[in-house]
Amino acid sequence: MWFPYPRNACAIVISASPANTPAARPPSMTESAAPAFACARFIKEIGRGPNGARALSRDDTYALYEAMLDGRVSDLELGAVLLAYRVKGETAAELAAMLAAAHRSFEPLHIQHGREHARPVSIPSYNGARRLPNLTPLLSLLLAREGVPVLVHGVIDDPGRVTSAEIFAELGVKAAASHDEIEDSLASRRLAFAPIASLAPKLARLLSLRRIMGVRNSTHTLVKILQPFAQPGLRLVNYTHPEYRESLTGLFTQHPDAAQGGALLARGTEGEAVADTRRQVQVDWFHHGHSETLVSAERSSADAPPVDLPESLDAATTARWIESVLRGEIAVPPALARQVEVIADVVRRPV
Asked: Residue 110 CB: number of other CB atoms within 10 A?
């Protein structure tokens, strides 16, 4: 398989990427004392195309992804594995194994419950705004105001999109630079924004390979289903394409360990886990191997009153609009208010 980069290209480009901090860079293959991990037999199984490829066993998937996280896979083989999974797709069992390896690659967060013993909520934010306003920061602030500890984790920047990090910066919410800062922010204000490089540096390195390869990889799915808390909290999980709904449903129902703390699954808004202000989507709650529909999908009505939204998508305008909503000068969009109500109820239910 031809790969258009020299052996050390990944290390060179990643170190130059503004989305990565020094803490996010693992040792290079020459610096690491760990033995190299041979991938040929795995690539032979997963690299046969969409019709001929076969899923790996749980043990093999775990070993492969763990080696990828540890930087023990050569750049040539790493590119082959990532593209093979991009074409084949991950089964629920493979996702469960990758997620287990991902969780072992970083230190989980320890935080206290919120008011009335509300469990913490994790909101992934890896897409931002492209055509619609990014209201993920508003969702998190509304939940924190309800006494729910909220962690938003994601990327700092994404060319062509407005990230939550940029909006949080306009709102005076500083990106946490370490685990201690994440935990301190959650304890003091019930809200923290954690760049993935601060939360899980090894995952950040694989995530950043999109800028080299031009396509997303399995890690983009994993960071959206990550359980970052030591005492598992509720996760908001979103999907864009229907096939991902099927694989995520299989993951959470067939592999209960992957759903510890519970997960709310819904169609995303341009890849963000915040409610779509234009329509009410179905929201399913996965917990203890079971699935329960908490909110049914509703068609948008032409008679529905218009929703007041930011005049433009840029971070400053969105932040000022969010401040107006929090002051009560602008009404919370109905779909978003309903989402806050559902989440606040679930996190106060017995685990």
From this structure: 12
Confidence at residue 33, expressed as pLDDT on a 0 to 100 scale: 59
Q: How many CB atoms lie within 10 A of CB 178?
A: 12
- 10 Å CB burial of residue 305 (0-12, 13-18, 19+) is exposed
pLDDT tens digits along 44-92: 999 998 889 999 999 999 999 999 999 999 999 999 999 999 999 999 9
Amino acid found at 122: S
Q: What are the residues whose beta carbons fall under 8 Å from the beta carbon of 133, sequence distance 6 or more? A: 309, 310, 313, 318, 321
DSSP state of 155: -
Calpha distance 334→311 (Å, rounded):
18
Structural domains for the chain: 13-103 (1.20.970.10), 115-346 (3.40.1030.10)
Angle between helices 9-16 and 75-88 (to 10 degrees): 80
3-state secondary structure labels for all residues of 214-250 = CCCCHHHHHCCCCCCECCCCEEEEEECCHHHHHHHHH
- Rounded to 5 degrees, φ, ψ at 149 are -65, 130
Note the pLDDT of residue 306. Answer: 75
Q: How far apart are CA 196 and CA 262, in angstroms?
A: 21
